[in-house]
Design brief:
16 strands; VC0802-like; six-stranded antiparallel sheet; globular; 448 residues; single chain; alpha/beta
Length: 448
């Protein structure tokens, strides 16, 4: 059994859906995890916001645009097939239910139900199109097996138990289901967060102990740098689980930050591929890295540095714990930390409670806030073996303002915080200095 996950852009047009169907048809036993078609989640987020604000004109306008989006796909995919009427009726029924619910007072649970409709409609269309192409498949409802526990984390034991108990699941054949969506521990509609379809795929993969999880997107693998800012990037052939996790967390958009852990624990490989260029190798993720190299660079934007300084920190027990309790109190996670005898600096990517955090910290220390920063994350197994690579990285960034440097917390990661305004220049400098055409610069450096 395999897991094949298709992202929204991979299902965002008739041509892409047809290509996805061709890929699916070549696999005998698989579960196909569908994101909502490109643009649908944006429409639904705007619709939820209009509902919350009781803006009826916006609700009507957005609902009409979203319905037109799915009707157009349905017509182009299913015209001439006997099941066209069934598909069209399903779309109308779903939008009638959405419109009816939008007439009631907004609540969080109904908002989560609304957000799930993009995945439900997309997976239904995919299943119907596959059937129309004589590719037998069974549509599964993710609400029947995907759920969170009381701590808000997906319950893998529950996933395996529930999906294996489904009367129409045998572990053989082609199944289609929804990514992203789940139930809360109270049995109410919930989700795994934006981009959570990757997480659905690897949670299912781990629960069912599949042979591989394939993530199909609109690019040919995880690139060694951000192609939006840097020319001549290339897909990395192989990554270790640790390297992939670091890159996903620090800004590589192709992967959800949490999705690597489930398959890593079961030693299940992942393959990142391009839907429209399936002949390309993509990026293979497994337990061990290939060679002693720096693999890639990722960047995480809109970071805020908080510097806390106090003479009371010197030789003081418990001072750091007091600081971290402030962030815990406001449920704000920390990315990068640097410390000295009398100061600590941290970065956060969520400023929702920044004023409260600063006010509490100022009761115990001097506090400086530096907004609009970027974390540059240089990833590769080479970093745990040699300091030569680190020296090259820092040399490449001469003239760039380095506000924080974190090295040693991870064996695979060198993190450097720079002003957001210098991000593009920093990425381009690192690309020029570190990655040569033969991609073997750091292997040779290590040998020398």
């Amino acid at each position: 059994m395999k897991i094949l996950k298709f992202g929204g852009t991979s299902l965002g047009s008739v041509a892409h859906i047809k290509q996805a169907a061709t890929i699916i048809s070549k696999t005998e036993n698989c579960i196909v995890v569908c994101s909502a078609v490109a643009g649908a989640t944006d429409y639904l987020e705007n619709l939820e916001w209009a509902w919350l604000k009781k803006n009826r004109s916006d609700i009507t306008s957005i609902l009409k645009k979203l319905k037109n989006r799915f009707e157009s796909l349905c017509y182009e995919l299913m015209k001439g097939h006997s099941s066209f009427t069934i598909c069209y009726a399903k779309l109308n029924d779903t939008f009638e239910k959405m419109e009816a619910r939008l007439n009631f007072q907004y609540n969080v649970s109904d908002g989560k139900w609304l957000m799930a409709q993009g995945e439900f409609l997309t997976s239904f269309l995919i299943s119907q199109y596959l059937a129309a192409q004589t590719i037998h498949n069974i549509l599964l409802d993710a609400f029947d097996f995907m759920s969170k526990d009381a701590d808000g984390k997906p319950s893998r034991d529950h996933i395996k138990q529930k999906i294996c108990a489904l009367p129409h699941y045998s572990g053989r054949g082609i199944y289609v289901t929804q990514g992203y969506i789940c139930l809360s521990h109270q049995g109410l509609p919930d989700n795994l967060g934006r981009g959570g379809s990757d997480y659905t795929a690897t949670l299912l993969g781990a629960a069912l102990n599949v042979s591989i999880v394939e993530i199909w997107t609109d690019i040919d693998g995880l690139h060694n740098n951000d192609p939006r800012y840097v020319d001549h990037t290339y897909p990395v052939d192989r990554l270790s689980y640790n390297e992939a996790s670091e890159l996903a967390y620090f800004g590589a958009k192709i992967l959800h930050p949490l999705c690597v852990q489930p398959v890593a624990e079961k030693n299940i490989p992942m393959l990142l591929k391009c839907t429209m260029q399936p002949q390309k190798d993509g990026t293979f993720i497994h337990s061990s890295a290939e060679g002693v190299v720096i693999k890639a660079i990722a960047a995480k934007d809109n970071i805020t540095i908080i510097r806390i300084k106090s003479a009371d920190m010197f030789n003081a027990y418990g001072f750091l714990s007091r600081i971290f309790k402030v962030f815990e109190q406001y449920q704000t996670s920390i990315d990068v930390i640097t410390t000295s005898e009398v100061a600590v600096a941290v970065t956060i990517d969520n400023n929702s409670y920044i004023e409260d955090i600063v006010n509490d910290l100022q009761e115990m220390a001097y506090v400086e806030v530096i907004p609009l920063q970027t974390i540059l994350c240089v990833v590769g197994d080479a970093l745990k073996i040699s300091q030569k690579q680190t020296a090259v990285v820092l040399d490449a960034l001469q003239g760039i303002k380095l506000n924080m440097i974190s090295y040693g917390g991870s064996k695979n990661n060198l993190s450097i915080v720079v002003p957001l305004s210098q991000k593009k220049e920093a990425l381009q400098r690192l690309q020029k200095k570190m990655f040569t055409k033969n991609k073997r610069f750091f292997s040779l450096l290590h040998k020398n």
